[in-house]
């Protein structure tokens, strides 16, 4: 019975007290979570769109030319006759498009 008495004596609910936590959650979502999801999706799309002849940089900073692709791996030529196999997830960015240059 005392619990019911306490509930009946409680002040009416003030919904503005919930406004601040909701605003904080919205700020965190729009300034932290959403941009990270977009970057992740863009990176995945980039790695799937890799093609032979692309000049790339790995996450370790190694520059090279893509010469062979599979679903999981990429073979990169870093010097004449020097070929290295990497996972697609190790490719950080593309530095040039469709290298036809024989210098590499």
From TrEMBL:
Stored SMART domains: YajC (SM01323)
Entry coiled-coil feature ranges: none
Membrane association type: Single-pass membrane protein
UniProt record, GO biological process: protein transport
Record flagged with keyword Protein biosynthesis: no
The UniProt record lists the keyword Transmembrane: yes
Pfam families: YajC
Localization (cell): Cell membrane
Name of the protein in question: Sec translocon accessory complex subunit YajC
